[in-house]
Amino acid sequence: MKILKQGIITKVSGPLIIAKGMEEANMFDVVKVSDKNLIGEIIAMEGDKASIQVYEETSGVGPGEKVVQTGMPLSVELGPGMLTSIYDGIQRPLEKIYEQTGKNIERGIEVTSIDRDKKWTFKPKKNVGDTVTSGDVIGGVQETKIIECKIMVPIGIEGKIKEIKSGDFTVCETICVIEDKKGKSHEITMMQKWPVRKPRPVKQKLNPDDMLVTGQRTIDTFFPVVKGGTCAIPGAFGSGKTVIQHQLAKWADADIIIYVGCGERGNEMTEVLTEFPHLIDPRTKDSLMNRTVLIANTSDMPVAAREASIYTGITIAEFYRDMGYNVALMADSTSRWAEALREMSGRLEEMPGEEGYPAYLGSRIAEFYERAGKVQCLGCEERVGTLTVIGAVSPAGGDISEPVSQSSLRIVKVFWGLDASLAAKRHFPSINWLTSYSLYKEQAEKWEQENISDEFVRLKNKAMAILQEEAKLQEIVQLVGIDAVSTKDRVTLEVARLLREDYLAQDAFDDVDCYASSHKQERIMKIIFKFYEQMSRATEKGINVEDYIKLPYVSRIGKAKFIEESNVDIEFDDIEKSLITETDRIIEKGGQA
């Protein structure tokens, strides 16, 4: 890096440092603080004084020590080798740090984000003499068994290929030379850098219309998110935010998963780090880590690094999106990032907004979510990529009227409201079906009609109407008792119970029930409504609801979600046949089970 003028520290306030003699510096430049070389970023400038947030512990640092300017904004290294990696908030690989320092991260340690020694096999897709522009794919590297890292022309470069190589190279070796219109030659390597706060440019933003299938029945059926969409998961402590995000990271049908643990407890990140390498992707039958990048920023790490982890994660996600992949980013949780903004704003002595958060909280959250979307990527070739952003929010006591939740809900299109009372009943996912919503319903239903069936769309809408009707009936039951409810309403309550307990509830730790394909979701929904139809038929013939629900096949409906995908059609056909046969029998016998 180019070394510029050095500044002098005048004040230290936790992760905030004030330095003078910084007139040559720019906003968001990276600096090295003191002889310990702590990494910091300039977040405010006033004359020759710079306010710097430091991403490492500042104990022992005092006034009079130097601040070295680098003249470069906070950036990430992008290239082959990121997948399967585990980074901290400023893209330092934790595995390499552990090899050098052991369990505790030493301050000021410098580790390259991408291995400089490993050789990758580069296969060119362009020839000498071809004209290329920013974003064009000039070749590829098989980064993992299932993902090809496409090597693209860096932003701002275009011209004719003067030289292009094939073979094994490190990320720093020249693989291509491009000559621009002015005759200047640009040496292209497999690695490029990009400032994290600057969104990567695209040719055009498109309307997202392809559903992100998660395998979680509550989400896919009632509150879907599309590829390129935005979603917030607010919920109190213990309501299941992290488990839901783990499930989405494991089973969502995205090509690439970026999981950002922002200020989370160490045990939760440990669970991710230990589980993911052993999980098998149901689509590729290979390790889930082969399409995953993990960014671990725990609650005991410096507060300021939380902001860096969010930007690092979404910049890496944009890089893979630009290759034409479907990328899903899980941020857990944005509240911890907001807390970091509040602390830094307080130390800067800025005028506080609501509940002490900075007045610009809403715009920062909006800028983050707006980097999601379905895009037409840069380059001459037609290439479409998506970036879906799912952010967890941790409001104190589950009160979503607080500023972080409200700022998130103003920008996102999907709200999965978690209910602590459902979580207490061990109902997973604890998404409250009466308060949650998705503004992608129209796109999702169009996708379902094309990929599942028209009948499924009709049944799921009917199911939501039954669940809403149940909420009204439960109020009556609590007042006057179940015996005062009509037979028709008793049938509605029983069907709603099946929908709640056997469709919406899903066992995240069961090898079979943790994931349900769209086809299986349709078959479960159909069998529940076949039960509704037959139960209505039986009660119209005078059969008591209590007698009907004692039939042996009713318990088979409850266990249907544990049927393996390969046996779905055979088993469900048999349940449906038994349902009709048993109903005919009980009607014929006049209610004797």
In words, what does this structure look like?
This protein is an alpha+beta fold and 593 residues long. Strand 4 and strand 5 (49-54) form a beta hairpin. Strands 8, 18, 19, 20, 21, 22, 23, 24, 25 and 26 form a ten-stranded mixed β-sheet that branches. Strands 1-2-5-4-3-6 form a six-stranded antiparallel barrel. The protein has a four-stranded antiparallel β-sheet with strand order 12-11-9-14, with no helix packed on it. The chain is globular and about 95 Å long.
Keywords, please?
26 strands, 6-stranded antiparallel β-barrel, 16 helices, 10-stranded mixed sheet, 593 residues, alpha+beta
Low-confidence stretches: none
The structural class is alpha+beta
* Rg, Å, rounded: 28 Å
Mean pLDDT equals: 91
Beta content: 15-25%
Question: How much helicity do the residues have?
Answer: 25-40%
Write the layout of secondary structure elements.
Blueprint: E1 6-13, E2 16-20, E3 29-33, E4 38-46, E5 49-54, E6 66-73, E7 75-78, E8 86-87, H1 94-101, E9 120-124, E10 131-132, E11 137-142, E12 148-152, E13 159-164, E14 167-169, E15 176-179, E16 185-188, E17 192-195, E18 204-206, H2 217-222, E19 230-234, H3 241-251, E20 256-264, H4 266-275, E21 292-298, H5 305-321, E22 326-332, H6 334-347, H7 361-369, E23 373-376, E24 384-393, H8 403-409, E25 414-415, H9 420-424, E26 437-438, H10 441-451, H11 454-480, H12 487-504, H13 518-540, H14 545-549, H15 552-559, H16 568-588
Short summary:
This protein has 593 residues and is an alpha+beta fold.
